[in-house]
Design brief:
The protein is of the alpha/beta class and 316 residues long. It contains 14 helices and 10 strands. Helix 8 packs across helix 9. The two termini are 27 Å apart.
């Protein structure tokens, strides 16, 4: 009997947001409505209103957008489960890009949704504050290989903060370091150098001042052994116990996001199909650039779920 193809669920990070996200899920699926209503109650304000109506400027603030993307992603996952699609595959692994790793923790049963929302809001607050204390930003360098970007980082004082896919690497640093990195990247033939709209130099040493406080905050939350292995952003290997998860979340703040290696690990472990669950299509694009033979599916709203239902049919 042929072995069934292995599947991974992956969850997007900051930058995937858009005003109006999640509203169709809220209106179509009681399970998604419950996610939004429960989150609003636990936060003491209407995060759902921010997701559905904006204003965009308020939504994209780091301490708002991180829990917002997490909540929309989980609402999407719950709606998918509610739809009860025939033979819909369970994941062998889950993974998320930066913030998305917290969504993966919820999906794997390692962290409760309310705790994840509260923790991520604190994470966003601290990251924003770190950006005020040590101003910096991030640049996406397109079209250069990792060794070349390492050399650029060494000579500019920037740090590699995301290795997303072949030809797309992000560096973080102070303004002067990024200006030098931009100049060097263009001189070495980068196809593009794109400033990211973020409030700080995330996943770099400029996040160091918040590490101790964030570590204390993480220690106050209850984690559980995951029921599905979570692929670490830092090591690109499975996280399978509580201690390694806590350590990961603290390290992840100031270390490079190894997305390319994470996808390659899952691929080498037999995963052939990736479901990107949550707003946007960023991860699907990166995965296809890592290996064009991998299958990717986006599930970002009620219409995507309806198409799966019409194709496969519900179980009842």
């Amino acid at each position: 009997m042929a072995e069934l193809p292995k599947v991974a669920y992956v969850f997007p990070g900051q930058g995937s947001q858009s005003t109006g996200m999640g509203l169709d899920l809220y209106n179509s699926y009681p399970s998604a409505k419950e996610v939004f209503d429960g989150t609003d109650a636990s936060l003491g304000f209407s995060l759902s209103r921010l997701c559905f109506e904006g204003p965009e400027e308020e939504l994209k603030q780091t301490h708002n957008v991180q829990p917002a993307i997490l909540v929309v992603s989980i609402a999407c996952l719950k709606a998918l489960e509610e739809a009860a699609i025939v033979n819909f595959p369970s994941p062998t692994f889950v993974a998320g890009h930066s913030l998305g790793e917290y969504t993966a923790l919820v999906a794997a049963g390692a962290l409760g949704l309310t705790d994840a929302v509260l923790l991520v809001r604190e994470r966003g607050r601290l990251m924003y504050e770190a950006g005020l204390k040590n101003p910096g930003s991030m640049l996406a360098i397109i079209g250069l290989d990792e060794e070349t970007v390492k050399d650029i980082s060494f000579h500019s004082g920037a740090e590699i903060s995301n290795i997303n896919c072949p030809g797309q690497i992000v560096v973080s640093g102070a303004a002067q370091a990024l200006a030098e990195a931009d100049k060097l990247a263009r001189a070495k033939g980068a196809r593009a150098v794109i400033p990211l709209k973020v409030s700080g130099a995330f996943h770099s040493a400029l996040m160091e001042p918040i590490i101790a406080e964030f570590s204390k905050i993480v220690s106050r939350f209850a984690f559980h052994p995951p029921v599905i292995p979570i692929i670490s952003n830092v090591t690109a290997r499975p996280l399978t116990d509580v201690d390694s998860i806590k350590e990961e979340l603290v390290k992840q703040l100031r270390n490079c996001i190894q997305w390319r290696r994470s996808v390659e690990y899952m691929m080498q472990s037999g995963v052939t199909t990736f479901y990107e669950i949550g707003p946007g299509r960023v991860l699907s694009g990166l995965i296809r650039r890592i290996n064009s033979e991998l299958q990717t599916f986006n599930i970002s709203g009620a219409e995507d779920i309806a198409q799966l239902v019409s194709k496969e049919g519900p179980t009842n």
